[in-house]
Fold this sequence. Notes:
There is one protein chain. By secondary structure, this protein is an alpha+beta fold. It folds into two domains: 283 residues, Periplasmic binding protein-like II (D-Maltodextrin-Binding Protein, domain 2, 3-Layer(aba) Sandwich), CATH 3.40.190; 234 residues, Dipeptide-binding Protein, Domain 3 (Dipeptide-binding Protein, domain 3), CATH 3.10.105.10. Helix content is 29%, strand content 23%. Strands 1, 8, 9, 10, 11, 12, 13, 14, 15, 16, 17 and 18 form a twelve-stranded mixed beta sheet that branches. A four-stranded antiparallel beta sheet has the order 4-5-7-6, covered by helices on one side. A two-stranded antiparallel sheet has the order 2-3. A hairpin with a 2-residue loop joins strand 6 and strand 7. Helix 10 runs antiparallel to helix 12, helix 15 packs across helix 16 and helix 16 packs antiparallel against helix 17. The longest helix has 17 residues. The protein is globular and about 70 Å long. The two termini are 38 Å apart. The N terminus is likely disordered.
Amino acid sequence: MQRRRLLQSLAGLALPLPAARAADPAESLRIGLAADITTFDPHWLNTAPNLSAHSHVFEALTRNDADARVVPGLAQSWKALDAHTWEFKLRPGVRFHDGSELTADDVAFSLERPNTLSGSPGPFTSATRPIAEKTAVDKLTLRLRTREPNYAPLLIDLNSVFIVSRRAAAKAGEEAFTRGTAAIGTGPYKLARFAPGEGVELEAFAGYHGSKPAFAQALLRSQSSDAARVAALLSGDVGAIESPPTADLARLAKDPRWRVEQKVSWRTLFLHLDQGREVSPFVAAKDGKPLAANPLRDLRVRRALSLAINRAAIVARVMEGNAVAAGNLVSPPIFGHDPALKPEAFDADGAKKLLAEAGYPDGFALTLHGPADRYINDDQILQAVAQMLARIGIATKVQTYPAAAYFQRMRAGEFSVALLGWGSQAGDLALRSLLMTPDAVAGWGAWNWGKYSNPALDAAVKQALTTLEPSAREAASRVAMGIAMKDVACIPLHHQLASWATRRELRYAARTDEFTFAFDFARA
C-alpha cells in the first residue's frame, strides 16, 4: 500500500510536469523497462523481458508483427515438402556481428542447443522438441522434420528460438553471453554491455541486412519500480517507458508533452495450482497442522477458489480499467480464444457451499506466491485475491520475490498457488506449455509447474496441433481450452492492456506481444 500511495501522490501533484529534454544529440535512445533482463543467453530462460531484449541482438527464422502475426525473419520463404518435412530458404548476405556469414549450419545448431541445456528455469524445449531432425542442405537451405505429422504451430514456435553463431556459442555457457563474447547475433544492434539488474547498452550494427534503426545507440534500463520509471520519464532521463503505472496513465495521456500508446495484450494473468502432490507445502489446516490430502486436487475446491475471485473488481479497482476479465488462457485478439468461455462469475456463497461439500466447511490456510514488480500491479493483484479468499474462510497470506528468484523457485515446485502471466500466439500453444502432462522428450508441459495432468486435455491439444486447416485447428483448440477451463486446471484472472509512454517527439506502435523494441522507435 505504501508504494501505491507514492504513485497516487506522484499522479496528483499540483505542480506542472517538468519539461522533457530535447532529443539526445548523440543519437541515443533511453528506455525504462518494467522488468529485469535476467540473462543474455537467448536459449536459457524463456520470458518476455528476455525475449524482448534479445530481439535487438539476435533474430529467428520467423518473427511477429505488431499484431502477433507470423512474418518472415531470417527465413525469407518456406514450404512443406511432406507431412513431416519443411524446407526453409535463408536470406542471402546476412552477416553476424563479427562479420561471418549466416549459414544453415548455424540455424541447425541454434535449434538443437536449447535441448542440450540442463537446469533451465524456463526452457525453450516446447518449441524445439517437436523438431526431430535438422538438416543443412546447403548454406542457405534448411530442412526440418517434425515428430508429429502436419505439425501446425512450427512457424510460431520458430519465432522464439534465436539464431546464434555456432562458432561463438558452441562451447559457451551463460557467463560467456553475459560478458558478450558469445552474444554474436545478426540483429540491428550489437551488444555493447549487459549488466544484470541494471540494463543493456546497444550499438547499431552497420552491417545489418534490414532497415537501419533511427538511433545509433540504445540503452534499455531496468527500472522495475513504477515510481522510479515514471520519474525518469518526467525528468527526461529516459525518452520512453513501458508499462506506465495505471495510476498515471490518464494524466500522461492528457498532457501534450507525452504520448501514451495502448493495445490489448496477449498476456493472461492466472493462478497455477499444485495438483501433482498428495500434500502441498503451503496448504495447511488453519491451526498450521498438515492436511491429510492436498485440497487443490479436488475440483470442488478449485471451483470454489475461482468463484471467490471477483475479477470485475480487480479490473476496475486494482487495474483501474486497464485489463479485461479472463475466462480463457489467451486474450480476445489471439487465435483460439473462445468467446463462449466467459469469466467465472463472482459467487462467494457458491464457493462456501463447494468448500463444505469437499469437506472444508471452515476452510483452510493457504499462501499465495508471486513475483514482485514483474506484472502490472502484481503485488496488489495477489493482495486482492487473498482478501477475496479470506471471505470464504480460507486464511490467505501473500509472499512475493524478485522475478529471477521467483521463477527459479516456482520451477522447482516450491509453491502451492502461484501467479503467472503468459503470452501466446495461439490457444493450443498456451495449453501445450502450461497444462499438458509434462513430457521432456516431446516438450509438452515445459511450464506446467502445477503438474496438472488430464489425458482428455492432452489428446485434444495434440489434435489441434496436428490440424493444418486454420478454422478446424481453431475449433479443436477451443475444444481443448473448454476442457481445461471446465476442470479448473488453472484459474485465469485477466488479460493485460499493453501500454507505453514516450516523449511527444517519439513514436512507437503498440504491440500485442508487449515487446519494446528500440529499433521500432521513430522520431515524430
